[in-house]
Every structure is written in structure tokens, then in C-alpha cells.
# Entry
Amino acid sequence: MNRLNGKVAVVTGGARGIGRAISLRLARDGADIVTADLNLAGAESVAEEVRALGRSAIARQVDVTDEAQVEGLFADAAGELGQVDIAVANAGIMVIGPMIDTAVADWQRIFDVNVTGVWFTCKSAAKQMIAQGGGGKIILAASQAGKVGSTRFTGAYSVTKHAVVGITRSLALELAKHQINVNAYCPGIVDTEMWDQIDREAGALIGYKVGELKELASSAVPLGRIQVPEDVSNLVSFFASSDSDYMTGQAVNVTGGNVMH
Ligand code: NAD
# Structure
């Protein structure tokens, strides 16, 4: 299955978790990969895994909250690999606590990464794709928390993910005339370091031992198991391919049935 042969994909937050799975899946589909992350060692190790699959890969240390760095990322990607066909704005962070007690600095920090960082990534990706012509695929990390109000002391995070759904819809309308599809993935409970943080920090606020909140949350998933990053990368592979050419502005749940709208 090489439906992305000849394509180039940029993945932010690609050093671990969902971003790593997306990088490897798009590479298996035939794309060359640019892995960008704050964590350069992690990004380099994923780039090495991509090369082992027979694709070209470059790793870049990028803070998505810094627009100049994001612009440089897309300039390097196009300069070194020829073009950018697919951009995955995946980098995101979590802040745990009741919204009414959230410090302004934490509120600002999560908005900087999850909303402004995603917007910067979309801006640079769109400008590159418009300049080269021929359309493109912009894919954003939202969440089931972007569809419903949040439990587990993740209210600020939920607000940012609702904003990502908003970016997806408006940008899809803005970029449709360029044949650039803009869609978002909305995962549920994915077994990554982000959920380890929720388990640890939100669990502590309600008196749970480590592991208990994750176990409780995943046992309530209708499909009966916690999600793995590959459940998400399967959907991203579809969004990145021509099979999704008539879809834009969609925020699609991949939650094991947790959320249905
Ligand atoms: P993770 O914490 O395991 O990985 C996130 C990666 O993003 C890390 O490598 C981190 O270094 C990088 N990153 C953080 N801030 C950055 C910045 N400013 N610039 C560049 N890179 C930065 O998280 P994950 O679980 O793999 O989540 C990936 C995306 O999916 C996030 O946007 C997250 O909100 C979303 N998501 C996760 C879940 C889940 O259950 N894990 C559910 C729904 C949505």
C-alpha cells in the first residue's frame, strides 16, 4: 500500500506518541517525512525509524509557538525535500486542574501551543501549498475534548480543542478554492505520555492511585479497550490520501465510541 508515494509530510510533535505513529504510518504509505518537535533527540530517532522504512526523513527542533521557527520548518522541508503536500499540526500539551483555579500563565501556555501553534503551522503549510499549486492536505489534532465539555480537570485543554475544531472549519472554507483539504482527528483516550500525565495529575486530585483513572476511563470505552496511537494514524493516513479528496472542514472522532457527535 503506497498511496502516498512521492508526497512529503511535515508532522509537528512527531517525536513520540501519536505524532510518531503518524510519521511512521505516512512513511509506510510512501511519503517522505519531516519530524518537528521541541525534543530533537526524539525527532531524530523517529526520523531514523522512517529511514529504516526506506523513506527520506529530516528532523528539526521547532517550538510551534514561535512563528519564525515554524516558517523556517516549512522552508527547510520544501527546500530539502522539494515540496510539502501534507501538514499534520499534531503538537499539543495538557494542563490539569479546575478551570476556575487555572493560573493565567497556564491558560496562556496551553493556548500558545494548542491553538496559536496549530494556527502558525496551518498558516505556513497553506502558504507553501498555495505557492507550489496542486492542493494539499492540512490535518489538525483536535480531540473528543473538542466536541464535549470536559471531565477529569481538563477544562482548559477542552477549550483549546474546541478552538482547533473552529480553525478546521473556517480554514477549510478559506482554502477550498486552492483544493487544500483541512480536516481534524478527534481521538479519545490514547495510551501516550499525555494520558499518563492526566492519570497522574487528575488522578491525584480525586485521590486515585497511579493507573486507576486511566483504567476507569478506558474500561468505559464502548469498544472495550484503550486506544493505541495507530488507531489515530489509520485515520490520518486516510486524510492524507486522495481517498479524502471530497472531505473538508470535518472533525472526525476516533474514540472507540466514546463520543458520537
Ligand atoms: P505527547 O505528549 O505524547 O506528545 C506530544 C509531543 O508534542 C511531544 O513530543 C512534545 O515534545 C511535542 N510538543 C509539545 N509542545 C511543543 C511545542 N511547543 N513545539 C513543538 N513540539 C511540541 O502527546 P500525544 O498523546 O501523542 O498527543 C498528540 C496530539 O494529540 C496532541 O495535540 C494531543 O492534544 C492530541 N490528543 C491526544 C489524546 C490522548 O489521549 N493522548 C487524545 C486526544 C487528542
Residues 104-132 form the longest helix (29 residues). The mean pLDDT is 97.
